[in-house]
């Protein structure tokens, strides 16, 4: 499985990840306004890949980012809902194998299901109201019928109750009993491999306990031991591919530890190895295979660093200052790279790359299909794989709140009508696609787009499409 590595601080990286290491990696996919927050993830269009739902805290608007092969392939606006309605859960509530969304009114306690199909809301169903002292504890399949159900908990009594949901309606309610309020829900997942969702709780002492749920009943509970409270849950998912849910914790220093869970027991735990490249200049060579399946975390300081990475494995690269670091990987994989304050050169691998510019001068060179996101500095974006026709999988993203000066190379299309495959995405400019095109001008063989800051942004964005003319509305996605 291809994976991601996050690079900060003017670095160069290219590599392949072991499938068990995806949660060892920090991934950035796009820049959006700070009023937009993640509402949930799931397969909202039935293409068997996970997409991302965001919501604006100002307008209440929902936006769906369809993702394919680790990059954003499309954006869909789902409309707005009043901000007194909050997302209560994400799951498949009608059995159509695509992900839906439940919202809840903070005023009335009412729940409503929004069915989502092919990236749009297809229907709405009211589930009724529950007193606001009952809060959602988790969403999952607690009765084995392959549709998502909902567990609520009373903040007064500590009682848990399962609401079975079938075909967008509550079909049954089951009381699971009460647990002391010093125990809080840490997450849900299938921790014993029986195909139904279980629940993990943690108390004030840091102890974890699994409550196995089968056919809407707690069948058993198992203590997993105690971990210091400086470690907090980062994620629950099947990290090692054995069919049961594992747990990843993170501490205040950014260290990650994966707890493999099998048959309600922690079978092993692995701390991601950490290498520090400090404020002094250094040259480091790393073989990921020597660090085992747990992967490696590289903290990069302000010094000038040359880091050569070989072998198959996982790496997460964080930190970085204004120096011009170079990080290379002798492999064929997917890269997610961010240039910060330095003059960075980001080189893609043979997989699908995602590049993010910073405040410095960033050169982004894709060797396969890539997603380029402009920073606030001066970026050069080079697309190496441009189809002669059809859909171009290279995507260029710009945000009004970031601005910057950008140059796009690699298309070499100066015929009338230009290259209809190029894809430009604009966020927070408050302009339609037609208006963006109207703000462009042809200078020689180049097209220059100049856009003022918008949506709270104050920085002008300037984009030069080298050797490209004939920009059309079909090339632009503005939201």
Q: What this model shows, in words?
A:
This protein is 1% helix and 50% strand. By secondary structure, it is mostly beta strands. The longest helix is centred in the C-terminal third of the chain and has 6 residues. The two termini are 32 Å apart.
What's this entry about, in short?
This protein has 479 residues and is mostly beta strands. The protein has one helix and 40 strands.
What features would you highlight for this structure?
479 residues; mainly beta; single chain; disordered N terminus; 40 strands; 7-stranded mixed sheet; elongated; 7-stranded parallel sheet
Which helices and strands appear, and what pairs or packs with what?
Blueprint: E1 6-7, E2 36-42, E3 51-56, E4 61-68, E5 71-80, E6 85-91, E7 100-105, E8 110-117, E9 120-129, E10 134-140, E11 149-154, E12 159-166, E13 169-178, E14 183-189, E15 198-203, E16 207-214, E17 217-226, E18 231-237, E19 246-251, E20 256-262, E21 265-271, E22 273-277, E23 282-287, E24 296-300, E25 305-310, E26 315-319, E27 326-329, E28 336-338, E29 345-347, E30 353-356, E31 361-365, E32 370-373, E33 378-382, E34 395-399, E35 404-409, E36 424-427, H1 433-438, E37 440-443, E38 446-451, E39 461-465, E40 476-478
Parallel strand pairs: 1-28, 22-24, 23-25, 24-26, 25-27, 28-30, 29-31, 30-32, 31-33, 32-34, 33-35, 34-36, 35-39, 36-40
Antiparallel strand pairs: 2-3, 3-4, 4-5, 6-7, 7-8, 8-9, 10-11, 11-12, 12-13, 14-15, 15-16, 16-17, 18-19, 19-20, 20-21, 37-38, 38-39
């Amino acid at each position: 499985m291809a994976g991601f590595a996050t690079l900060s601080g003017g670095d160069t990286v290219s590599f392949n990840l072991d499938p068990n290491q995806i949660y060892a990696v920090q991934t950035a996919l796009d820049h959006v306004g700070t009023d937009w927050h993640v509402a949930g993830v799931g397969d909202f269009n039935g293409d068997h890949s996970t997409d991302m739902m965001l919501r604006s805290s100002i307008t209440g608007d929902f936006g769906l980012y369809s993702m394919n092969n680790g990059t954003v392939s499309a954006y869909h606006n789902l409309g707005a809902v009043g901000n007194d309605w909050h997302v209560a859960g994400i799951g498949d509530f009608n059995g159509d194998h695509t992900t839906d969304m439940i919202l809840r009114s903070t005023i009335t306690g009412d729940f409503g299901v929004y069915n989502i199909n092919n990236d749009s809301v297809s229907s709405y169903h009211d589930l009724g109201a529950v007193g606001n002292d009952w809060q959602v504890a988790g969403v999952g399949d607690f009765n084995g019928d392959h549709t998502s159900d909902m567990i609520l908990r009373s903040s007064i009594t500590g009682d848990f109750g399962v609401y079975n949901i079938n075909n967008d309606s509550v079909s049954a309610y089951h009381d699971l009993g009460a647990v002391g309020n010093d125990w809080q829900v840490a997450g849900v997942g299938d921790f014993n491999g029986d195909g139904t969702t279980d629940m993990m709780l943690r108390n004030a002492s840091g102890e974890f306990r699994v409550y196995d749920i089968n056919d809407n009943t707690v069948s058993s509970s198992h203590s997993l031991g105690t971990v210091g409270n400086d470690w907090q849950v980062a994620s629950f998912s099947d990290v090692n591919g054995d069919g049961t849910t594992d747990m990843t914790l993170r501490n205040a220093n950014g260290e990650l530890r994966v707890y493999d869970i099998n048959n309600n027991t922690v079978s092993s735990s692995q701390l991601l190895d950490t290498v520090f490249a400090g404020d002094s200049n250094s040259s480091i060579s790393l073989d990921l295979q020597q660090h085992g399946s747990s992967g490696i975390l590289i903290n990069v300081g302000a010094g000038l660093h040359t880091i050569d990475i070989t072998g198959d494995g996982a790496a997460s690269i964080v930190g970085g200052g204004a120096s011009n670091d170079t990080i290379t990987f002798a492999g064929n994989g997917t890269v997610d790279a961010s240039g910060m304050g330095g003059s960075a050169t980001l080189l893609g691998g043979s997989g699908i790359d995602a590049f993010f510019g910073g405040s410095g001068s960033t050169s982004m060179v894709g060797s396969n299909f890539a997603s380029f996101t402009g920073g606030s500095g001066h970026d050069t974006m080079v697309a190496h794989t441009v189809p002669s026709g059809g859909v171009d999988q290279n995507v260029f993203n710009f945000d009004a709140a970031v601005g910057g000066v950008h140059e796009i190379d690699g298309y070499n299309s100066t015929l009338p009508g230009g290259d209809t495959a190029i894809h430009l995405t604009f966020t927070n400019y408050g302009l339609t696609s037609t208006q963006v095109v109207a703000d462009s001008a042809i200078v020689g063989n180049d097209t220059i787009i100049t856009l003022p800051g918008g949506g709270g942004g104050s920085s002008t964005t300037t984009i030069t499409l080298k050797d490209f003319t004939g920009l059309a509305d079909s090339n632009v996605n503005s939201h």
